[in-house]
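Q: Sequence in, structure out?
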Amino acid sequence: MRHDDGRRMTGVDERREYWINSRGYEIMGLSSRALEIPAIRDFVGIEIDVQHLWGSIYTEAEEHEDGRLLQMSDYKTLISKGLIQPPSKEFGPSIGIRLAQAEKLAKVAEFILGAGGVGYVDRMDESIAVYLQYAISPLGMNVTHDPEIVRTPKGITRPGAWEDEDPEAKGTRKFVPSTGNTYGHHTESKEFIEPHLRTITPTDLDNFWGTVSALGIPKEQAMNDRVQGFVHVVIEAQDFMLSLQRQIGKSSEPGLIPSDQERIIAVAKIMKVMISILQSGFGGNQIDQADIALTLNEALTQNYGVTVVPEPQTDNLLS
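A: Exactly. Output:
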C-alpha cells in the first residue's frame, strides 16, 4: 500500500530515495556501489536539502525589491545610491535584505558540499569568498581570501567510493530505479511549495504559530503573505540545521578532503550564521559580530582560505 506521495506504509520515502540515487548518479557522478554506502547517501541527501532550502529562500527574496537588488549589486553601492534604506539600529536590515543574505549563505553551503560534484574543488574557495562577501556586507564585515591555503591536495585523494565511475558520463547518464517509479528532478517536484503557501496541515500551523510567537511577530501581521513566507523560510532553515546536527559524528566515508564530516560540520556553522541573520531584531535576538566572524572562520579559513574580518567601528553599518 502507498501514500499518494509515493511513500510505502513502511515509512520509507521512495521519492527521496529516488532523488538521492538520481542526483548521486546523474549529477555527482557517483557509482551505484557508492550509493549503497549510508554515509554517502546521507551526504547526497544533505546536498538535496540545501538546494531545496536555497530554492525556498531565493523564491521569497525575489518577492522583495531590496532582496532582488542585492542579488545584482553590492550592498554599500545600493545604500550610497539611495536604492535601499539603511538598516535600522534596532531591527537591522530589512526582511528582503536578510533573505538575500541567507540565499548567498545557502550558495556557500552548496559550494562546501561540492556544488554537484564532490571531486570538483578547483576555484571553489574563490566562489565561497565572493558569495560570502555579498552575505556579510550588510553586517559591516569583509572577506579576505588567501588562495595559497587551499593549494594542498583537495577533492578525491585516492581511488574508492567517492571516485567518479565515469567522469565523461556525468550529467548525461540516467538513473533508472528498479521499482520503475520516477518522480522527476527534486527541484521540479510537486513537493516544492512556495514558502508563503506552506501553512497547510495541523503540524504546519503549530510550527508556524510557534515560530511567530518565538520571533515576537504580532498576530495581526502574521497572515501577510510575505510574513508567512519569511516565517516558513526560518522554519525550513531550523529544520535543516537539526538534520545536520543529527549527521555530525556519524561514520565518515574515507577518501575525500575535506572529509564528508568536515563539510557537514562547516555547513552547520554556515547555517548557524544564517539563522542568526534571519532572526536578528526579532524576539530580542541581536547580531554578535565577533561570534559570527568566529563561526565563519572556523568553517572556512583552514580548508578554503576564507577569513571574515569586521570593518572599523566607524564604518560599521550596524553601529
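The beta strands are 141-145, 155-156, 256-257, 306-310.
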